[in-house]
Amino acid sequence: MKAVNNPNLGLALFDFDGTITTADTYTKFLLNTTPLYRIVIGALVLSPFILWHKLGRYPTAKLRPKLTFFAFWRRKVASTKRQANNFSAQFMDSVIFDRALTEIRWHQTQGHEIAVVSANVNIYLAAWCHRHQVNLISSELAVQKRRKNQRYTGKYRNGDCSNEKKALAIKSHYKLANYSHIYAYGDTQEDMPMLALANKKYFQWQEIA
């Protein structure tokens, strides 16, 4: 759903894992909601990629779609969403960084448009964003074209929402020229294209030029 543009107001863009949270929630989400047999098979098949990633030789943006495929291929949409909502309600608030929540509240008092912009999948982030009244731009799981008993394909609708795709997704949701102040908050190199869109940018909660 496209967010509504608000001329002459501020826009605040927040990465999620590592910026709003103190921990990696996506890995936790996968481990908590993926059937054990899928975890075992995925770990065996993807072990070389996981090892290369730990050695810094394989980027997260390439590994994440592979993990996502093993976790969600042919999973039922309805039951998976219920699991995602339960995970969000039971776990997410325990890893939210107090400073991030304070910053979000400040932007809300200023009347700014606020969006979480994440490479994580939308199904568990959506509930948290709804509770905190912020918009969500993220990777979205593709669904098989069938009317009943819908299942996920395991792939993304529009690719992994990281790096340059993160910036492109923001531009497709917002007309940036309408905002007098754009704030962006991130913590990894994947967030740098998003930070480049802002005139007030924060990397690991330190303001940068």
Structure report:
The protein is of the alpha/beta class. The chain is built from eight helices and eight strands; from the N terminus they run βαααααβαβββαβαββ. It has helices spanning 25-33, 36-54, 60-72, 77-91, 98-109, 122-131, 163-173, 192-195, and strands at 9-14, 113-121, 135-139, 141-143, 152-156, 179-186, 200-203, 206-208. It has a six-stranded mixed beta sheet with strand order 3-2-1-6-7-8, sandwiched between helices. Helix 2 (36-54) packs antiparallel against helix 3. The mean pLDDT is 95.
Please tell me the CATH architecture by its name: 3-Layer(aba) Sandwich
End-to-end distance, in Å?
A: 32 Å
CATH superfamily: HAD superfamily/HAD-like
Structural domains: how many:
1
What does the largest sheet look like? 6 strands, mixed
Query: Can you tell me the CATH class?
Result: Alpha Beta
Strand order of the largest sheet: 3-2-1-6-7-8
Q: What global shape is seen?
A: globular
Instruction: Briefly note the structural class of the backbone.
Output: alpha/beta
Helix count equals 8
Please indicate the percent range of residues in DSSP E strands (runs of 2 or more): 15-25%
Low confidence ranges: none
Mind sketching the topology for me?
Blueprint: E1 9-14, H1 25-33, H2 36-54, H3 60-72, H4 77-91, H5 98-109, E2 113-121, H6 122-131, E3 135-139, E4 141-143, E5 152-156, H7 163-173, E6 179-186, H8 192-195, E7 200-203, E8 206-208
Parallel strand pairs: 1-2, 1-6, 2-3, 6-7
Antiparallel strand pairs: 4-5, 7-8
Helix pairs in contact: 2-3, 4-6
Keywords: Membrane, Transmembrane, Transmembrane helix
GO molecular function, one term: magnesium ion binding
GO cellular component, one term: cytoplasm
